[in-house]
Amino acid sequence: MNLDIKHILLLSAAIFLLHVTNVGAQELNCTVEVNSDQVQGTNKQVFNTLKEAIAQYMNENHFTNAQYAANEKIDCQLYFTIKEQNDNTFSGDLQIQATRPVYNSSYITTLINFKDTKIEFDYQENEPLIFSPTTMESQLTAILNYYAYLILAIDSDSFQLNGGDTYYQILEQIVQMGQSSGETGWKAFEDSKNRAAVLAAYTEPSTSAIRNLLYQYHRRGLDEMSVSPDKGRQTIAKSLEDIKKVYEGNSMSVALSMFKDAKMDELVNVFSKGTQEERKDAYDLLSPIFPTEMDRINKIREGQTK
């Protein structure tokens, strides 16, 4: 191996290990939006204080003992769409997005792009949001904790094989507390895309291959492309076998739609410069799994960009 390249790879590995093992500062750089356009005739100021309280909660609490320098914090976004307000009870949707940088490039890759349609919580204007990972202080803080730790788990898995283990254990505790509360969005088998289902997708043996994909696709694939685009793309192609395993384990798993929503456009771009054989193999693997995405999957076969 060329000595310079070897040094670059060793340095990158050290940086990534620091990313997940040191102790200290807050982990998230979270943008929050609260859309209340569908709620009529109410005090709109409460939505501003809600937005500020959530942003403070996500950005100022210590969710872990890991240290993240300012440029290492995980960029994420929470987009609340409040559809109904009844006194102090709010309900609606929450779109969660999280990204991570690709090594030695200006490219940013999407880790999570998911909509939670079961958001319901109580909130009074200027109410403090109290952080505790071991108790359920409120429905709102439980939801925020859940997505903070999901972001941390998936981000950690993308840097280190099974790097998110600790965070998935915390997520299991949060889901158990949510289920005990009887509130919507937590119940097992309530629907195929609620918070319990998302956790199950990443932890149950039948579908947990998605976690191996997170590591192979990102750390061994995308992160290698600055050194060897062909090798990185080949690793990404191989990592897609894990999506096939998820599909065979549970063809209705929310892990499949989460992967599609985060990665399909990226796959079009990655394979646009691939060989004809690579494009065909990716097309053959993805077509039966995502039949509603044939417009984009056809672009993979044809070597088009999105």
Can you offer a commentary on this structure?
This protein has 306 residues and is α+β, with helices and mostly antiparallel strands. 50% of the residues lie in helices and 16% in strands. The chain is built from 11 helices and 4 strands. α9 runs parallel beside α11 (294-302) and α10 (276-286) packs antiparallel against α11 (294-302). The two termini are 35 Å apart.
Topology summary:
Layout: H1 3-21, E1 28-35, H2 45-60, E2 74-86, E3 89-101, E4 108-122, H3 139-159, H4 165-181, H5 195-203, H6 209-221, H7 229-239, H8 241-249, H9 254-271, H10 276-286, H11 294-302
Parallel strand pairs: 1-2
Antiparallel strand pairs: 2-3, 3-4
Structural class: alpha+beta
**Widest sheet: strand order?**
1-2-3-4
Termini separation comes to: 35 Å
* Oligomeric form: single chain
- Described by the principal axes of the CA atoms, the overall outline is globular
Total strands: 4
Stretches where pLDDT falls below 50 for ≥5 residues? 1-24
Mean pLDDT, to the nearest integer, reads 90
Report the biggest beta sheet as strand number plus sense, adding barrel if it closes. Answer: 4 strands, mixed
**How much strand content do the residues show?**
15-25%
Approximately how much helix is present in the residues? 40-55%
Q: Indicate the radius of gyration in whole angstroms.
A: 20 Å
Number of alpha- plus pi-helical segments: 11
Order of helices and strands: HEHEEEHHHHHHHHH
Descriptive key words:
306 residues; alpha+beta; four-stranded mixed beta sheet; 11 helices; globular
